[in-house]
């Protein structure tokens, strides 16, 4: 039996952001500064049901590729959504259980040499091999058509990496290539009792940021990964101790990798992710110890550059450092969102502390806007992806941020 649209999306939100605390989406987050920068929302499209990621084309065509959780990647070209999807992998998603928490695609990334090899990668939930699990996270490689730049070839798909876990349906997050040419993969932790969580277990890929070389079959370990040769440690791990990095980004001017880690009951956090770094989960959440009598060496935990409680937001949505031209007041600031529709920016002050301040939306949607992702285009302008919770039901929406 098919789920009604409203129920379908409610379940989707619960699972995708199951850690997020319930809050009134009309509430305004206060932040730790009284400085207010105003922005406006410019509607780009409302034709995609569940837009979860936007990535730029790796060429000069100015196309934007938008991933829909339902398994399709759409192209926005010249301000219009193209009539046919770039690729439709819905047939590869989990089929036995069609509830939205299981049947989902999380995003894509283009190979750095896409102009020559036409390769791109998708992260999605596939059927489980182990019947005790719900499904399997898959990182798969595909090739675009040589004759049509707007079409990917589904038949070229091949699996690069598979990950299973007790709550793997909620674990997938993001894939992206770094400036070093390697593929970074953020994987969430088990949403299970504390003893089963894997963030501090280096023999598990859950609760980690991974780094692999996809130029070998199926992949290789980059020679400078931090845990190569360490007994009982997965060499794919770049950093660990995360609950769920829901969006990370590499800021080339500062040579920093910034990630937003979704909290559970206490705090949301933003981290500068370092090679081999331990960010504390599940012992630590934000800048607070969640486990009081731990035997772990907490002195090794790296503190976030900023954290906020659920008085200020309910689920962090990572963004990027702004290097565009349309909003000069935000130049050099890390702009990010919260699931409840709030926007923030971080600015490093003279003392080296990262101050957070809310952004005021001068023309908010009439109905609550639930934000899934915060991405950038070729000109480093910022887009917000999510759904509008209207009386008639949920509707996907993508907005471009402009100066207020």
From TrEMBL:
Protein name: Glucose/Sorbosone dehydrogenase domain-containing protein
Keywords of the record: Signal
Domain Glucose/Sorbosone dehydrogenase: 49-337
Domain of life, per lineage: Bacteria
Listed InterPro entries: 6-blade_b-propeller_TolB-like, Glc/Sorbosone_DH, Quinoprot_gluc/sorb_DH_b-prop
Signal peptide (from-to): 1-25
Family annotation (Gene3D superfamilies): TolB, C-terminal domain
PROSITE patterns: PROKAR_LIPOPROTEIN
Cross-referenced Pfam families: GSDH (PF07995)
